[in-house]
Amino acid sequence: MSVFKMELSKEAQEVKKRVKKADKVAIVGWAMPTRTKAPYSNEAFDIWSCNELNMEDKTNRFTAFFNLHTLEELHSLQDWGRRSAHLLKETLPVFTLEDYKSPEIPSGVPYPFEDVFKSFGNEKYFTSSIAQQIALAIVYGYKEIHIYGVEMLLDSEYRNQRACCEYYIGIARGMGIITYLPKECTILKSAWVYGLETEPQDDGLINQRMVADVYNRLIGEHGKATAMQQQIQGAIQQVQQFIEIARMKGRARGMSVQEDQKVDLDWDTFQQFQMWKQQMAQQGMLPQELQQPATPQPVRRPPGARTEFSA
After folding, report:
1. Buried (b) or exposed (e) across 221-247, using 16+ Cβ within 10 A?
2. Considering Cα of 109, then 126, then 161, then 185, what sign does the dihedral take?
3. Less packed terminus of the chain by CB within 10 Å, N or C?
C-alpha cells in the first residue's frame, strides 16, 4: 500500500481528461541516441516531451509538452521569435507555470504544482521538468512510464537533476508502476558496485558515456546550427533580391521604396516569391504580415505576362 495519496483539484482533473488518453506514457527528452527509440507510432502510449521538441522533430507523434519557464525566461531566448511563432500555432496541451496564462501560448494548461506537492507529502523536491513529468504521470495513474532521451550526464544535470529523476522512478516502481529505460540509458546505472568492486580510476562507464554523449550532442547541435545559418543566409539573399526588384520597379513608377504600393512583377519572379514564402513558413520564419496569400491570386499566364505584388 502506498504511503502517498494521489489527489487532483477539479481544474486539474479537467486537464487530465484532455491529456491522458492511454494507460502508458513515454517521456521523451532531447538526448540522443535513445530519443529515437520512443514508441511514437504506438497509440497505446501518450507521448510527452520538454519545451518545443516538435519544432526540431516534425515527423514523430507527440501528445503533450512541458514548458515550465517564466515569460521573462522565454523572452530572453535568442530564438524566441521562432519558438513564439511555433507556440502560437501549437494545438497540443503545453503545461506551463500556474502564475500566468499567456496569450503567447494559447494551448497552455497549468501544471498542477500544489496537487503534485500534496500527493508526495509536500516535499517539493523537483530539480527538473523530467522529474515533474514523472511525478505527474504517477499522479495521473499511468500503469507504465517509459523514459527516452534522458541521460543527465552534463555537470549541472548530473549534480542537480539526476538524483531527483531517479527518486521519482523509485517511487513509481515502489507503487507497482512499470518503468522502462533503454539499456543504453545511464540513468539508474553506476560505474561499480560498492564493496564488491573497486572504484575505477577513470570513473568507468559514466565518464566514457559522458564524453561520447556530449560529443555526439555537440556535433548534432553544430550541424543544426550550420543548417539554420545557411537557411537564414539564403533567406537574406532572397529578400535582398526582392527588395532590389521592388526598388527598380518603384523608381520606374516614381515611387519611394518605403511607400506601401503595389509593384508589378513578371510571372517567374512572382512564382519565386511564392516559393520563398512557402519555405519560410515551413521553417517558422515568415513574418506575420506576409502570411496572408497575395491578392489577387494569379492564374497561369504566358511567358512575359505580369502580375501585381505588394512591395
Report:
1. eeeeeeeeeeeeeebeebeeebeebbe
2. negative
3. N
How many C-beta atoms surround the C-beta of residue 25 within 10 A? Answer: 26
The single-letter DSSP state of residue 263 is: E
| Residues 36, 160 contacting (CB under 8 angstroms) | no
Whole-number Å distance between alpha carbons of 184 and 5? 33
CA 193 to chain centre: 37
Pairwise CA distance, residues 271 & 290, whole Å? 15
User: What's the fold here for domain 10-189?
Assistant: sialyltransferase cstii, chain A (3.90.1480)
Residue 194: DSSP 8-state: B
More confident residue, 294 or 245: 245
How many CB atoms neighbour CB 183 within 10 A?
7
Q: Where residue 208 falls among pLDDT bands split at 50, 70, 90?
A: low
List of long-range contacts for 120-124, beta carbons under 8 Å, 24+ apart? 120/4, 120/171, 121/3, 121/4
Residue 270: the pLDDT is: 66
For the chain, the domains span 10-189, 210-284+306-310
What pairs with residue 306 in β-bridges?
266
**Given the C-alpha cell 529523476, which residue does it identify?**
165
Residue-wise pLDDT for 258-280, tens only, equals: 544 455 555 666 666 677 777 77
DSSP run (H or E) holding 71: helix 71-75
Integer angstrom CA distances of residue 306 from 145, 147, 265, 277:
59, 56, 6, 19
Peptide bond into 303 cis (omega under 30): no
